[in-house]
Write a structure and sequence with these properties.
This protein has 14 helices and 6 strands. It has about 280 residues and is an alpha/beta fold. A 6-stranded mixed beta sheet has the order 4-3-5-2-1-6, with helices on both faces.
């Protein structure tokens, strides 16, 4: 009988943690000794509409501080990022690519950002890709993080980061430079058409508040940076954030805003917090 109960509880617990998440971007964190509720919100880094719904603004009002992935309010952040934009050991994009592919990328960058690939020869290829994000939208570029920061500043509250610039930038030393270069070439050869389609699809899924759908899209993506490197892009970082979140929530009620892709899945922030004993429920 005892063995049966253990087996049942194990299966039941597994069922609870494997259930699909409700369609919501905003989640309330409570229980496990917290004196006040904190909130977790899934953001999108590139969008046409970064306006915040009323329940998000209310959650910001009901918390004492904002934590993003990075402290984007830090004045030296841009300078810090520059320190980590270069590939290690003197690796060059021109050595990673054939002369023909380097020429294709060169012409592509001149067309889209009026700069030659030679100017970015030592940059991590993914950093070059990020410069092209605004070109992937058929609208003015907007950022949800920027909107969260505006509200927080108007409320005279502090903004912090769950990780450092160094932590985030070193992820792109872990993802092979060859794969990053390959994806840059694919982008250049399609003249952003495939990337525009993927960004458009991602924004639609985000608009529907489908966190599971966001993660599935990353799994299914033709972009190897996204589909083959979720352990370093998402899972490892999620696990590193949990102790910081727990310490922070115990000190003050906090609003956490991180990329929506970090929330779903067995290694996502929501289920990791639940495994630590917190109640994490969708806010409709």
């Amino acid at each position: 009988m005892k063995k049966f109960l253990i087996t049942f509880l194990t299966l039941f617990t597994g069922f609870l943690f494997s259930q699909e998440l409700e369609k919501s971007l905003l989640w309330k964190i409570s229980g496990n000794g917290l004196k006040k509720d904190s909130y977790l919100f899934g953001t999108i880094h590139i969008t046409c509409d970064a306006s915040l719904e009323g329940n998000i603004v209310k959650a910001l009002e009901n918390t004492d501080q904002l934590y993003l992935e990075l402290d984007m309010d830090e004045k030296s952040m841009q300078m810090q990022m520059m320190k980590y934009m270069m590939m290690k050991d003197g690796v060059k994009l021109s050595n990673l690519l054939s002369p023909q592919d380097f020429q294709i990328v060169d012409e592509f960058l001149k067309k889209n950002i009026n700069m030659s690939a030679k100017m970015f020869d030592g940059f991590k290829p993914f950093m070059i890709t990020t410069m092209l994000y605004p070109k992937m939208l058929d609208c003015p570029f907007q950022s949800v993080e920027t909107e969260l920061m505006k509200v927080t500043k108007n409320q005279n509250k502090e903004i912090y980061g769950l990780e450092t610039v160094e932590d985030q930038m070193k992820v792109f030393d872990t993802i092979p430079y060859e794969i990053q270069a390959e994806e840059l070439v694919k982008m250049a050869k399609s003249n952003l058409e495939k990337d525009k389609a993927e960004i458009g699809k991602m924004m639609e899924i985000y608009k529907s508040k489908d966190l599971e759908g966001m993660l599935k899209m990353m799994d299914d993506s033709n972009n190897k940076i996204t589909s083959e490197n979720q352990e370093v892009l998402l899972n490892n970082r999620n696990k590193n954030w949990i102790p910081v979140m727990i310490k922070t929530m115990k000190e003050k009620p906090t609003f956490f805003g991180v990329g929506a892709g970090h929330l779903a899945g067995e290694e996502g922030v929501i289920k990791l917090l639940r495994k630590q004993g917190f109640k994490v429920e969708a806010v409709k």
